[in-house]
Design a protein that fits this description.
This protein is of the alpha/beta class. It has 18 helices and six strands.
Length: 436
């Protein structure tokens, strides 16, 4: 059972090793090196926790030793490798690339490996260390059975532990722990009948096509879920969870926020013909026309432009990327909530009536924040999980959605900032926006 005062327990543990910490500070060791040494002594913590402890006790390195290099490794590079290694599923080559893009630190895959080995950040463990890791993973899984990861399968729970807790678990250990702690859940996740997949789903690259769609399973409770997925990388561009009567405006505002953050509009958007999409279609087409006008092409070309040149309408059932997202979301996150909400309605007497405004208000007040938190966990896990290779699909793109989106050849078009600001200023400011 988890301690009711984790912060106090951590403070006490730091106090036990304070003399070791002070010695390493005086010798000029970096925070990452101190954390690695504490781990070898049996106290597993993080650099952020160490920084808080040092600040609370007023502990500092002697003048002239801050930021020094030990073994040729700067404190900044060691911190970057430490965080990325423990919070992503990337290999050493990808870690080196992320150090450059995220932290502006030039390094190589060989250097990253040397840093890992220096601090004992290993991808595999043997003997007693392997047994200890298995036991630790069992405890982690037991703790998460009451949280957002309770319905995750082996692959997803492994990614969730890495992204949200900085804990590197082996898939086999996670699978064993789940079978012991949650055999019923494992049985429910067994694969059943599956539709045959398309041989290939081909797009040119990131931002060539965004697939947008809404999830209506909670509509009767006044909750709407809406998301945009990049078709090439499968990265979730944004994810909306809010009131049903706010969806149309919120979807457009999410689109504006995403375009401003990325600096590009997608070349195509695909949706169904829902009432919330017509305003989005007009705005995207307006930005597309402005971008094309800057190219100074012939008048005949401009006269031939149609909405279909940048916007694709089609039934939701054929919006494959969005449907795949909803399927995974349902299996990993929302299925238990759907069953629970149904049980409230079917109780005798009914604990939730859709025709009662008071029930609707209380329902949204209680469950909307919880649902948003769990959906946020789902989004970050989705964007960080590794999509497996499929040899039977010749043009299938495997990898981590975040990485595929970052390193792929970018498509789309650059919006006119003046037009973008003018269109955005006409919208009321409401709608929950969660971009990943």
């Amino acid at each position: 059972m988890a301690s009711p005062h984790p912060a106090r327990d951590s403070e006490n543990r730091f106090s036990e090793f304070q003399h070791h910490i002070e010695e390493m500070l005086n010798e000029g060791h970096t925070n990452s090196q101190i954390v690695a040494a504490l781990t070898r002594l049996g106290f597993k913590t993080s650099t952020r926790s160490l920084q808080r402890f040092l600040k609370s006790r007023g502990l500092r390195r002697p003048s002239g030793t801050t930021g020094i290099k030990i073994g040729g490794v700067s404190d900044e590079l060691a911190e970057a490798v430490n965080y990325l290694f423990h919070h992503t599923t990337l290999n050493d080559t990808q870690l080196a690339a992320r150090c450059l893009t995220d932290y502006q630190l030039q390094t190589t895959a060989r250097r990253v490996k040397s840093i890992r080995l220096m601090f004992g950040w290993l991808r595999r463990s043997k003997g007693a260390a392997s047994d200890a890791q298995s036991a630790s993973t069992h405890q982690q899984v037991a703790y998460l059975l009451d949280g957002p990861g309770r319905t995750f399968g082996r692959e997803w729970l492994t990614t969730y532990l890495r992204v949200h807790h900085g804990y590197k678990a082996r898939r086999l250990d996670v699978s064993i722990a789940q079978r012991v702690l949650d055999p019923e859940g494992v049985t429910q996740r067994q694969p059943g009948f599956r539709r045959p997949r398309l041989e290939n789903y081909v797009t040119s690259g990131p931002n060539f096509l965004w697939c947008l769609d809404g999830h209506d399973k909670f509509a009767q409770y006044g909750i709407q879920i809406y998301a945009a997925v990049d078709a090439y990388s499968r990265k979730i561009i944004w994810f909306y969870c809010g009131n049903s009567n706010r969806t149309a405006i919120s979807v457009v505002r999410q689109y504006f926020n995403a375009v401003k953050a990325i600096g590009l509009c997608p070349r195509f958007i695909r949706t169904d013909k829902g009432t919330e999409t017509f305003l989005l279609c007009d705005i995207h087409f307006s930005l597309f026309i402005e971008a094309e006008l800057r190219e100074e092409l012939s008048d005949e070309y401009y006269q031939s432009l149609r909405i279909s040149d940048c916007y694709i309408y089609g039934p939701s059932t054929r919006n494959i990327r969005a449907e795949g997202l909803w399927r995974q979301q349902r299996f990993t996150t929302t299925v238990t909530w759907i069953d629970y909400f149904k049980s409230l309605q079917e109780a005798t007497p009914s604990l939730y009536r859709q025709d009662q405004p008071a029930d609707q208000v209380v329902f949204l007040y209680l469950f909307m924040p919880i649902l948003r938190d769990e959906l946020n966990a789902f989004v970050s896990t989705w964007n960080g999980h590794r999509i497996r290779a499929q040899p039977n699909r010749s043009q299938h793109v495997a990898g981590v959605p975040d990485e595929l989106y970052r390193i792929g050849q970018q498509h789309g078009f650059t919006p006119d900032n003046d037009v973008l600001s003018a269109l955005e200023s006409s919208l009321p400011k409401y709608g929950k926006y969660n971009r990943r």
